[in-house]
Amino acid sequence: MIPRARATGRAIGYRLFYRLPVRLRRRLVRLAVPKYIVGAVVLVRDTEADGAGRILLLRQPPGYSWTLPAGLLERAEAPVVGAARELYEESGIRLSPDRLRPAVPNAVVHAQGWVDVVFETEVPASTTELTVDGAEVFEAAWHPLDDLPRLSRATANLLGHYGIGPRAGEVPPATPSGA
């Protein structure tokens, strides 16, 4: 229980805060609240794969490991729109945002100060042309889930949330609400 004097002090503080102009209140909140960088990630599965399945991975500079299609959101960009944009820019796969569905969990908050909003989709690998620019992305390829190449640390950690890759089982899987 909060002591009465402290509760009264908070109430006065909130009354004063809400009398400030909205722009000033927003500025004060931004100063006091932790900042995060927000990115969109797409987990693309091959609809034609046998066995454990295959996912699309990218080899980006410096080229030592593989990553998922991902990138930072632009200002005021909806996460699903940013995910579709990044997927196209990095792999050549053009999908409407309504073809992407939120992964579970949909957002992964990293201790280093960024948040990944993750989406999933499926495409047939045999009829999906992969196009890379050679600068931002060296190579895009389908990889079997049970034989993944060397992943970047961030990608291995992220995939672990979905029970995939070398970190599978180390990160507690998300459970649907009510389960």
Describe the protein's architecture and organization:
The protein is an alpha+beta fold and 179 residues long. 27% of the residues lie in helices and 26% in strands. The protein is built from four helices and seven strands, in the order ααββββαβββα. It has helices spanning 4-19, 22-32, 79-91, 153-160; strands spanning 37-46, 54-59, 66-67, 70-72, 101-110, 114-123, 139-144. It has a four-stranded mixed β-sheet. Strands 3-2-7 form a three-stranded antiparallel β-sheet, with helices on one face. The chain is elongated and about 65 Å long. Mean pLDDT is 88; it is low at 175-179.
Could you give a short account of the major beta sheet?
4 strands, mixed
Class from secondary-structure proportions? alpha+beta
Find the count of extended strands (DSSP E, 2+ residues). 7
- Percent of sequence in beta strands: 25-35%
Helix content: 25-40%
Q: How are strands sequenced across the largest beta sheet?
A: 4-1-6-5
Order of helices and strands: HHEEEEHEEEH
Number of helices: 4
Shape: elongated
Mean pLDDT: 88
Fold topology:
Elements: H1 4-19, H2 22-32, E1 37-46, E2 54-59, E3 66-67, E4 70-72, H3 79-91, E5 101-110, E6 114-123, E7 139-144, H4 153-160
Question: How would you briefly describe this protein structure?
Answer:
This protein is of the alpha+beta class. It has helices at 4-19, 22-32, 79-91, 153-160, and strands spanning 37-46, 54-59, 66-67, 70-72, 101-110, 114-123, 139-144.
